[in-house]
Design a protein that fits this description.
With 299 residues, the chain is α/β, with parallel strands linked by helices. The chain has helices at 71-74, 103-116, 127-137, 159-171, 174-188, 196-205, 209-223, 229-236, 255-262, 279-282, 284-296; strands spanning 9-14, 17-21, 25-29, 34-38, 45-48, 56-60, 83-87, 121-125, 145-148, 240-245, 267-272.
């Protein structure tokens, strides 16, 4: 694997689940005593399902989220018996940065993970969906992809988010830091069951604004490039399920992008009813159903 890939030990979490725990444990003097803490590395993994499963799926979370943001999807009965491998992208949820956090750089390592774990399908949410698109367009992954809350161009992405990231590049990390601080408050009011909601909030609080500025700026550079990603995805031949919510949410499509994708035989557009921002967390059953559909399309 390329530089920055984690080659970790495994920590058993519960029957059928195992979590990669990267890095050595260190001890810190907290004044009143010693505290032991594990040093995190990039591309930590959360794995569920039998090792000898016939099918495997790689799950790439959205910006600011960790691997366990897919917990509810991974536990859905529709994916019983499937090997599910979720990873935390570098710079997200407190995971350390790697040397190359551009979308192509992330796609290269994600493709290596997909190969190493024999993944037949890749699922990405938001930022992770963009990484999955690049995996297909670069030819490093040729299987089906499920793209949740995907933004293919600058116009698709929320203007407030774009402004905050670009402002942070010019005046310092604090504008994006403020936005990251608001995310846990948003999640508290979302219809997400416990303990998943509590864990999601814990992960969001681990984000480091400085790291997030670098990763998010690279992401905006990628979707802002002078390319027609919708047309490229449509002509790639790779089966793709593109999932958005009925009333806004994370990501979106322009009318031209939607027309290109609707006309493609290899692309299926899926609309989740209502207004949902965190698709894997707020609509896990619908998400799992689409993943199951992608798996069923395999030969």
């Amino acid at each position: 694997m390329s530089r920055g890939t984690c080659v970790p030990s495994l920590l058993v979490v519960e029957p059928g689940w195992r979590m990669v725990e990267c890095g050595p444990a260190v001890r810190r003097n907290r004044g009143s005593g010693w505290e032991e803490k594990t040093m995190r590395e990039a591309w930590e993994l959360l794995i569920a399902g039998p090792e000898d499963a016939d099918r495997s799926v790689l799950l790439l979370p959205g910006g600011a989220n960790a691997a366990r943001s897919f917990d509810l999807v991974m536990a859905d009965p529709a994916l019983a018996g499937v090997r599910l491998v979720a990873t935390t992208l570098p710079g997200m949820a407190g995971a350390p940065l790697t040397e190359d956090v551009s979308v192509p750089g992330l796609a290269r390592v994600a493709s290596e993970l997909a190969t190493a774990h024999r993944c037949d399908v890749v699922v990405g949410f938001s930022h992770g969906a963009t990484v999955a698109v690049e995996m297909v367009l670069s030819g490093s992954f040729r299987g089906p992809v499920v793209l949740l809350g995907l933004s293919l161009t600058t116009e698709d992405e929320a203007a407030f988010f774009r402004l905050t990231v670009r402002l942070s590049q010019n005046v310092g990390r604090w504008p994006l830091g403020v936005l990251l601080g608001l995310l846990p408050l948003m999640v508290r009011s979302a219809k997400i069951p416990q303990p998943h909601k509590r864990e999601l909030i814990e992960d969001l609080k681990q984000n480091k604004a400085g790291d997030a500025v670098r990763v998010c700026a690279m992401y905006l550079d990628y979707i802002g490039a002078d390319r027609d990603y919708a047309a490229e995805l449509a002509s790639s031949g790779s089966p793709a399920w593109v999932v958005h919510t009925e009333k806004g949410g994370d990501g979106g499509l322009t009318d031209a992008e939607r027309a290109s994708l609707e006309a493609a035989d290899n692309v299926t557009l899926v609309t989740v009813p209502g207004s949902v921002f965190l698709l894997p967390d707020e609509a896990p059953q619908q998400t799992a159903a689409v993943v199951a559909a992608a798996l069923s399309a395999l030969p």
